Amino acid sequence: MHQPAPAGRRQAYRDAMTPSIVAIGTAVPHTRLAQHDVRELFASQPGVDRLTRRLIHAAFDAADIDHRYSVLSGLQGDPGEGLAVRQHDGELLSPTTGQRNAEYRRLAPALFAEAARRALSDAAMEAASVTHLVTVSCTGLFAPGPDVRLVRDLGLDPAVERYHHGFVGCAAAVPAIRVAHRIATAQPDAVVLIVCAELCSLHIRASSDPEQIVAASVFGDGAAAAVVTSASGAGPRLELETFATSLTADGEEDMAWTIGDHGFEMRLSAEVPRIVGREVRAAVSDLRDTQAWAVHPGGRSILDRVAAGLDLTDAQISPSRRVLRDYGNMSSATILFILRDLLHDAALGEASIGALAFGPGLTVESARLRRRVGA
What we know:
Blueprint: E1 20-27, E2 31-34, H1 35-43, H2 50-62, E3 67-70, H3 97-122, E4 132-137, H4 146-154, E5 161-166, H5 173-186, E6 191-199, H6 210-218, E7 221-229, E8 237-247, E9 255-260, E10 263-268, H7 271-283, E11 292-295, H8 300-310, H9 314-327, H10 334-343, E12 352-359, E13 363-372
Parallel strand pairs: 4-5, 4-6, 11-12
Antiparallel strand pairs: 1-7, 1-8, 2-3, 6-7, 8-13, 9-10, 12-13
């Protein structure tokens, strides 16, 4: 594994105007899917043999997920409006990539905007105060993109600086926060709005491939937004201290996200948890003294391996397990759901927090934050 950036290369700013996350807003679609219902939908597909049915039950039951959310009401049998994904007899359809992406273009902007409005409301900030906008997504593509739509939908200043972090996968929120940290450090009066939205369920498919079955068992839809600024405030905040990126020596073929003819295709091999467990200690060696953790829940096995590799207690890994159980893996947005819980957890006091996310490559993105209370 490539060595993480040495401590001297990490950027840490300890003055009185430390860039901080002062608010996080989240949003999910209206359709709530029970894990056992989705399991039975996949297990009942035509052509599913006994071995595949056994694999489906094992993957879904081992995921440690109770519910997920989806923009596709059709997964529950309601034809609803928009993309048709199943027939009346329950058979899953296979829409083209163009059809799936058209649905992303139709539905994603509202989810982006809902999360952003909640973050700005929690921060007690007007949309006009936003100076920089960072959008994140890997489950759809269009231009003018989500950043332009947010300018229109939120009433942002048309001159706001816009950056889009696209098709990076589950780890993308951490580098987005890093970008916001850099901006707020260089411009102390900046107000940076980060918005992540992922519609993973648009790419759902029936398959006997074990990797596709695992992907179908964990991914859900959701959005989250964070406000980053150096301005002090009365409420709790998450000061942004250090960041690091590490690329594992292997794993490039084990976690991948490509565009196929019938949707985006996730490759998530059984080696991923083992690679993460083996490499994570070296990748985040300078975060070992943190008191709380926000670990991206790519799946239960990844959380298990991280907890073992870093000697985390049940209490330290429980925020990540709780978000996985209630929402599934929402790709880039997920870690902001966890950080929101930690931001509002008064029992933490002024604790240090290690944030950890994994993406294609296999990339490990990490950050050190510190929860502060009051001005």
